[in-house]
Amino acid sequence: MLFNSLGFIVFLVVVLALYYSPIKWTNKKRILLLASYLFYAMWNPPLILLLWISTVVDWTAGNKLYTETNERKRKMWLYLSIIVNLGFLAFFKYGGFLLENFTMLLNAVGVEYEAAAPDILLPMGISFYTFQTMSYTIDMYYRRNKPAKTFLDFALFVTFFPQLVAGPIVRAPELIPQFYAPKRATTKQFFWGFFLLTLGLFEKVIMADVLLSQTADNAFGAGKVLHSLDAWAGTLAFSGQIFFDFAGYSTCAIGIALMLGIILPDNFKYPYAAIGFSDLWRRWHITLSSWLRDYLYIPLGGNRKGPTRTYINLALTMLLGGLWHGSAWTFVIWGGLHGFYLMVERFLKMHITLKINAWNGIVLAFLTYTCVNFTWVFFRAEDFGTAMDILGSMFFMQSGEKVVSSLDLWITFLVIGLLFIVHWLMRNTSVKAVSEKTPWWLLSIVWAVMLFLLLIAQTPGEQFIYFQF
Amino acid sequence: MNKKTVFLALGLTLVTLIFWELHWRSEGYPIAPEDDKHLYAEHRASIENLGKDDVVLLGSSRVLFDFQLDEFESVTGRRPVMLAAAGTNPIAALKDIVENSSYSGKIILGITPPLYFSPPTMDQFFFRRAQKLLDHYHSRTWADRWTHTVKKPLQNTFAFLCASPETFYNELDPRTLLEWKIQLPARVPGEPPFPMFQYLDWDRNITMWRADTDPEYAKMVTEVWKDAVNVPPEALPPPEVIEEGRKGTIAMTVGLVKAFEERGGQVIFVRCPSSDLFLDIESKAFPRDMYFDQLVEQTGSFGYHFQDYSFMNKYTPPEWSHLNTPDAKQFTLDVAAQMLKDGAL
After folding, report:
1. Do the domain assignments include residue A468?
2. DSSP secondary structure, B132-172, as one string
3. Is residue A162 exposed (0-12), middle (13-18) or buried (19+ Cβ within 10 Å)?
4. Which residues 19-78 of chain A have a CB within 8 Å of chain B?
5. Whole-angstrom Cα distance, residue A270 to residue A274?
């Protein structure tokens, strides 16, 4: 079910009504769990089986890892969890990609082989819930965590509907203990959650879908060499679209959970004001980057094994991070570019000392944002050729056709300019802090404008971009 | 966040929304459902339960406008299912019904030559539009169905929800309003504004709106038609490709009709009226003896061309392509009666 659909709003109202009815806490949790399964099954009922298998396997493995003392058996339980979870991911998400590359490899060495095109449906949000549930068993293996007290608490941790299909990716200690005692949002929390839901939907529906998506679609779907201005407009529009789309989803998820009295971690902190790429990854999709840091980069050795291994570890982590997003080489290149940026930054930091102030800070943030845009080209382009064409036009190496209207050019440059300025101004603060300093009537007007625009925006309910990952 | 912030925000939203709704009602906009993929899928799904005597209407916008369901039902005793869709090549729907359904009743298939004889491939606008509707029917989720169901009461209440979900044809959403209100020097070729000139009900029965009573409004629509048919000669395919396409479409239709007839179904072809620039182009580029007549002859089906019947050619479409609703009602009564008389229904 999509947050930006009337069906979801009705679903949420019913869930809230049941949740705040005078029933036992355990029954409320059961209602939340059933609602979460319903939320997922409304998209494709049979694929709920995958969620159940992941839940049962990781619940069992987690308990065994906690009680088992034989290290060899503990390893076996860990491997079982990883194989099941990554196996689902490999089959459903990377099956076609692996087969395609295997075929290409055989053809390259002269073996005639043509595989039937696989018809595999990608289960929505599989990358998110797989990583979330894997973190539980890995933490249990390293004895960093205790098992959930009940199966219900664990199942709810895996399936909690606000963040099930597109994060934030939550760790067990952040969420499971919140299910132990009865939870009820305070009035202030409930209203703030409602505000965040409005803000998230506004980001998705108005900013991403109404204002920016058309420019990005026109540029990346043109199928021809573009005029430089159009290539830049398309890329900048996509940088805004993907931010508003994904940050919008996370904001909705955090808001909905808060309306239930559950606190989810932040996933975005004004990433386009990042100074450098390590700063960017502390601000963009925070829960994924911290997951990759804790479960991939650090186990690979992190920065503890000398500069060369550090660079290799950074590159590997980002390449796999790229592949996490999608089964295509363009995503790998996207991850590889980020890995390269991180390596360059690390090298520069070792040799140059620079004191950051407001003046050089905004220049460096702008430079960072510009470099990020080059990576978005690979993220958005359907294939490598399209990406290279767009980049060629962005670097004024070629000039082609105009495909973006005057209005869309104005909208894109205005929205993206404002986005960058707002991110810079908000760099060290939060929406919550700003709202507390804003006169109450002004906050009401801003809220009303967002609600009004959401209600009159007759978009066909576009899916969130990150649902495909 | 305190209560007064929330209440003021909700109050302001309510007040502005009421003004928004009243404004569009004062402009004459009707309370009507969106003609979107969800409504189309609902009707596509309904044909699975129909019998041999039932009728499904396929075609482009001319069938949508010209066939009125109440009148058709009053003559035949059967309410047809309207699966015609504006701006589509209906061969996609015919193929889908023949290959992906068990329906074996009657199909009335409207032929708008420039659309029906456009190549049936996904890189072609008219076919792609049709195929997307059908794809949605086959892939729609329970969440889609649920949202469509709960939206109905709202669409029965608010006029501002009557617009089409398509970006080029949607007057009441912020995006289109921006495009229509802010006029900037053209940087890329654009189309003239495409005004809404119809509304429909939950059975997808259409009523023409404004274009039938306001000549200036009808002119806005004909400006769109002029732009649509203004194809530079160099963009047209060579004659041998056009001929190959004609033969291919006829052969594909014959194959589909035969397959449909083998399981007891029957297809009836209809060519609805057009006038002025449309009729001129259609007559020259798609001469009936080579196109419509060949379809009827090679399939051995019933065919009704508006030029053959006085009760079909006595009308003047206000915007060259579709009948106004009173005319469409009479047109439907007459055509349905003729079909009954001929034993086609």
Report:
1. no
2. HHHHHHHH--HHHHHHHHHHHHHHTT-GGG-S-SSTTS-TT
3. buried
4. 41-45
5. 7
How far away is chain A from the Cα of B293, in angstroms, using its nearest Cα? 39
d(CA A149, CA A155): 11
> Is residue B261 pLDDT above 90, yes or no?
yes
CA distance A193 to A201: 12
Select the residue of B141, B151, B182 nearest A6 (Cβ to Cβ): B151
The residue in chain B having the minimum alpha-carbon distance to the alpha carbon of residue A9 is: B147
Q: Who's near B107: CB < 8 A, 6+ residues apart?
A: B55, B56, B57, B58, B94, B97, B260, B265, B266, B267, B268
Among candidate residues A325, A338, A351, A423, the one labeled active-site is A325
Q: What's the gap between Cα B200 and its chain centre?
A: 11
Average pLDDT for residues A42-62, to the nearest whole number?
93
Active site residue A285: no
Dist CA B245 CA B127 (whole Å): 14
pLDDT in tens, A453-463: 999 887 665 66
Q: How far is A411 from chain B (nearest CA, A)?
A: 10
Q: Say how many domains are in chain A.
A: 1
Closest chain B residue by Cα to residue A409: B187
pLDDT for A451 equals 95
* Number of Cβ atoms within 10 Å of the Cβ of A453: 17
Residues 6+ apart with CB under 8 A from B40: B83, B85, B133, B136, B137, B204
A92 falls within a domain: yes
Closest CA to B151 of A461, A42, A448, A245: A461
Instruction: Please check whether residue B147 is in contact with residue A5, taking contact to mean a CB–CB distance below 8 angstroms.
Output: yes
Please tell me the distance from the alpha carbon of residue A273 to that of residue A248, in angstroms, as a whole number. 17
Structural domain for A72, as ranges: 23-98+121-180
Asked if the structure places residue A340 within a domain, the reply is no
CB neighbour list of residue A406: distance below 8 Å, 6 or more residues apart: B184, B185, B186, B187
Reduce the secondary structure of A52-75 to three states and give it as a string: HHHHHHHHHHHHHHHHCCCHHHHH
Beta bridge partners of B268: B108, B302
CA distance A150 to chain B (A): 30
DSSP code at position A295: I
pLDDT in tens, A157-215: 999 999 998 879 999 999 999 999 999 999 999 999 999 999 999 999 999 998 999 99
Rg over CA atoms, chain B? 21
